Amino acid sequence: MLSITQQLKAAESYVFATLAEAGVDWDNADARAFRTRFDAEFPRLFNLFAKLYGEHEDCLDHLATLIGQSLACWQARPDDLKALDLSREAQPDWFQSNKMLGAFCYVDRYAGDLIRLKDHVPYFADLGITYLHLMPLFDCPAENSDGGYAVSSYRDVRSDLGTMEDLRDLAKTLREAGISLVVDFVFNHTSNEHEWARKAAQGDPEFSDYYWIFEDRRMPDAYERTVREVFPDDHPGAFVQMEDGRWIWTTFHSFQWDLNYSNPAVFCAMSQEMLSLANQGVDLIRMDAVAFIWKRLGTSCESLPEAHLLLQAFNSVCRMAAPSLLFKSEAIVHPDEVVSYIDPKECPISYNPLLMALGWEALATRKVELINQAIARRQPIHPECAWVNYVRSHDDIGWTFADEDAAEFGIVGFDHRRFLNAFYTNRFDGSFARGEPFQFNPKTGDCRVCGTTASLTGIEAGDPGGIDRMILLYSIAFSAGGIPLISLGDEVGQLNDHSYKDHPGQAGDQRWVGRPMRPDGLYDQRDDPTTTAGKIFARMKRLIDARRSAPGLSGNAIRSFDTQNPHVLGYVRNGEGQEIYVLANFADTPQNLDPQRFLETMPRMTDLITGEAFHVRTGVSLGPHQTVWLA
Ligand code: GLC
Ligand code: GLC
Questions:
Q1: Would you place residue 446 in the very low, low, confident or very high pLDDT band (cuts 50, 70, 90)?
Q2: Residue range 253-289, pLDDT digits in tens
Q3: Whose atoms come closest to the Cα of 394: which ligand?
Q4: pLDDT confidence of 26, banded at 50, 70, 90?
Q5: Long-range pairs for 175-178: beta carbons < 8 A, 24 or more residues apart
């Protein structure tokens, strides 16, 4: 039997022989640069490939193909991106800066198309945005595409939004303005209109193997015994029937067909789609629905060990052929699972769905026990990684706290989620929120909530605390570490949009209520302090500016600070040696903190948001929903 080193050597020789046969020329500077990265990455990639695909006879052939294709992608990579690769390698912690500020929008809903989006770049730069996530913009089915999350071609921009050239051009304009472009890599599934899916539907065996297709119900029944229903409104279980009578795996909508990553050909093909995306000038890709990419009978088919190996393998391919590309994971699951994806060798950046959900939880309950516990217990991550802290995404809010965490306070997870759903959909007495329920599952009682920040915090309802609550949530996203993310339009208080009910492709999906068109009228009022939009905008600007000038907010290091007041959250940040005490009052009434809490701090501190001085040794008083960043 061969030793590991011998296996590695043998695999390497095999790969090189195959590439030589295919006429690959190593004798130029570009190929040599790739070779250096290849030498550094190959042991890891080989190891991952062996674990994932070692049982396949043609495993090494796939690996050779992958290397050959990656080299070709590297050679096609534009020079300015290669220059970016070098500068990012020299400063790998670039995204840890307190100057980082993320935002997201839909190209069509915000600007019409990619060309017109360019007109907004000066505004983005002026606001301080350094990271712009454009919601899915690739070719997809015409009527219902799950907001573009059903991709029909990763190589073509949706025709009403523009062309690939427009995307490259926009990426360049953004880069010149200091803004990184982020797009989704929707890689768990393709749409049923993707070329591969069409061929599979026609019965082509090669492409049938790209998906999870079964002749009859035996396997689907067996799998469905243990997997959860993500979109029960769309179809029960995880499978739908194809026109020819076969059954196909669709975790999300019936037109989103799950790719079969147990087939190495799928991994190789999707790696090429990913690299071609990187070569358009995308800096960061949001790895969509990472929890679902590997399936095994008898399991929940979520977050299996192989899902991690796959992400590591994709990451390794990037390090060779598009080294500056970074991954952000989208795992809206149990907090233990969320953190399991966060690693420099997997996804260095991740959404923070727990902190997001618990901010809303604390607003509803006016108590900080859960969010405080989450900060103490579940915030710390690898120092080279970063959370993306957000108030809301384009999706629903799911109450993804751990039941076992809640139980420590005598809170029953199921009941608490029911309360939160009722509260945020205005079915609870005294609620300030105007959200809509999403995917109520009568079998499990599960449900999630949709709506814009302004509609959920009470601004829509005219509640006097509305604006304060919104600023409170954003002040946490802006100060808790990593990259804060604004839902563009929130900075002027965009409200729920119910017009989706008139669009056949959207009517059944309440998430559209929280995806309004750019609120032009509100933007026009943003400099008028007598308007709600103007008030929100001025306070958001103040938060943004305060963050930009506070190096203490860089990085991720955080420790909780017990305020000994059940309504006031406290934590300490100390990036680059500046210590900042964040205090946030979730109550509707003023709250006082005991001077004893501040015996170890400086006696006099300044709120970085307002510039107000605090003599903390005499105690701290906070107004309703007030947050301070004391330094
Ligand atoms: C992600 C997206 C969501 C989409 C799903 C399926 O969760 O955020 O909008 O429905 O993936 O692609
Ligand atoms: C995500 C989550 C689910 C969410 C959906 C999109 O991946 O698992 O909770 O609602 O997809 O909305």
A1: confident
A2: 999 999 999 999 999 999 999 999 999 999 999 999 9
A3: 1
A4: confident
A5: 175/80, 175/84, 175/281, 175/283, 177/121, 177/122, 177/124, 177/125, 178/125, 178/130
Instruction: Indicate the SS3 state at residue 52.
Output: helix
Q: Cα(242)–Cα(254) distance, rounded to whole angstroms?
A: 10
Residues with catalytic annotation? 288, 330
What does the block give as tokens for 95?
A: 């995204």
Task: Output the CA 141–ligand 2 centroid distance in Å.
Answer: 20
- pLDDT of 309-359, one tens digit each? 999 999 999 999 999 999 999 999 999 999 999 999 999 999 999 999 999
Tokens of 436: 């809509």
Round to whole Å and give the CA distance between 138 and 472.
Answer: 35
Radius of gyration of the chain from its Cα atoms, rounded to whole angstroms: 25
Q: Give the rounded distance of the alpha carbon of 612 from its chain centre.
A: 35
Q: Which amino acid is at 247?
A: W
Is the separation of the CB atoms in 536 and 470 below 8 Å?
A: yes
pLDDT digits (tens, 9 = 90+) for 215-251: 999 999 999 999 999 998 889 999 999 999 999 999 9
Pocket of ligand 2 contains residue 454 by CB under 6 Å: no
Pick the ligand that lies closest to the CA of residue 144.
1
3-state secondary structure of 273: helix
| Residues whose beta carbon lies within 6 Å of some atom of ligand 1 | 146-147, 149, 186, 252, 288-289, 330, 395
Could you tell me the pLDDT band of residue 507, with boundaries at 50, 70 and 90?
A: very high
**Which pLDDT value is given to residue 445?**
79
Q: Distance (Å, rounded) from C-alpha 464 to C-alpha 530?
A: 15
Sequence-distant contacts of 216-225: CB under 8 A, at least 24 apart: 216/247, 217/247, 219/247, 219/297, 220/247, 220/249, 222/297, 222/298, 223/249, 223/295, 223/297, 223/301, 225/298
Which amino acid is present at 67?
Answer: I
Strand ranges for 217-317 from DSSP E: 239-241, 247-249, 256-258, 284-287
Q: How many CB atoms lie within 10 A of CB 422?
A: 18
Global pTM reads 0.96
Q: Please give the structure tokens belonging to residue 381.
A: 């991550």
- For residue 115, report the distance from its CA to the centre of ligand 1, in Å: 26
Q: How many whole angstroms separate alpha carbon 554 and alpha carbon 631?
A: 14
DSSP label of 570: E
162 vs 441: CA distance, rounded Å = 38
In the chain, pLDDT over 70 holds for what percent of residues?
Answer: 100
Cα→Cα distances 579→11, 601, 602, Å: 51, 10, 10
Query: Which residue, 264, 275, 269, is CA-closest to 71?
Result: 275
